[in-house]
Amino acid sequence: MDETTPSVEVAPLQSGSGLAGFLLLGRWPKDPVEWAKLLVLSVRIAAVPGLLRVSTVFAVLDDLPDDPHPGAVGLIAAAGPLIGENAVVPGQFAHPHPSAIVILHPPNSTISSVPEYETASGCVLLPGLPHLGLDHRAAWVEADVHGTVTQMISKSGVDPFQNPDTAALATFLAA
Q1: Helix (H), strand (E) at residue 143
Q2: Virtual torsion, Cα 77, 93, 137, 170, nearest 10 deg
Q3: What residues have CB less than 8 Å from 88, skipping those under 6 apart?
Q4: How far is C-alpha 102 from the geometric centre of its chain's CA atoms?
Q5: Could you state, in order of their start, the residue ranges of all structural domains in the chain?
Q6: pLDDT digits (tens, 9 = 90+) for 14-49
Q7: pTM passes above 0.85
Q8: Is 103 within 8 Å of 80 (Cβ atoms)?
Q9: Cα–Cα distance between 168 and 50 in angstroms, integer?
Q10: Starting from the edge strand earliest in sequence, which strands make up the sheet with 18-25, in order?
C-alpha cells in the first residue's frame, strides 16, 4: 500500500450498557487479512472487563450516524446478543445483506486456545456468492485485554458450516 492510500481506522462506540459497535474511518478493509487486523482490535476491546457482557452479533453497514466524524465510511453496529432475550434471529440480515457480519465473544464465553490466557474471541464472515464464483471469506481471532493475540486465522473459500461461528453468522444471513 502506498502513502497516498488512506488507512483503515477504527473507533469503538460505547452505549450505557457496553459496546455498541465501531465507527470505520478512512476506507473499508480490502481483503480478509485487513478484516482480520480490524477483528484483532475488536476482540481486544471485547476482552476489556464489563464492555461486552455476552456474545454479540454486529452488522457491517454503509450507514453513518447523524453528524458523522470526517472521514467516516461506515459502522459495525451491535445487532443483538447471540442467545437470550432480544437475540438475533435466523434471516435477520437476509435483505439487504450487510457487507460483513461479526460476532464477538467476551472472555467468559471463550475457551482459550492457550489456557494461561483469559481471552475474548471473534469472527468476521464476508459473505460471497458461491454460485457466481465469489467465495465466502472469514477471519477468526482470539486475544486478551493486554493485546496478546493467541490465535489469528484468515481464509478464503470458507464453507460456513464447518465452524460454529461462521455457521451461526451464515444462518443470520439466510433468507
Answers
A1: strand 137-143
A2: 120
A3: 57, 79, 80, 81, 82, 172
A4: 3
A5: 9-173
A6: 888 789 999 999 999 988 889 999 999 999 999 999
A7: yes
A8: no
A9: 24
A10: 9-15, 18-25, 72-81, 56-61, 100-105, 120-126, 137-143, 149-156
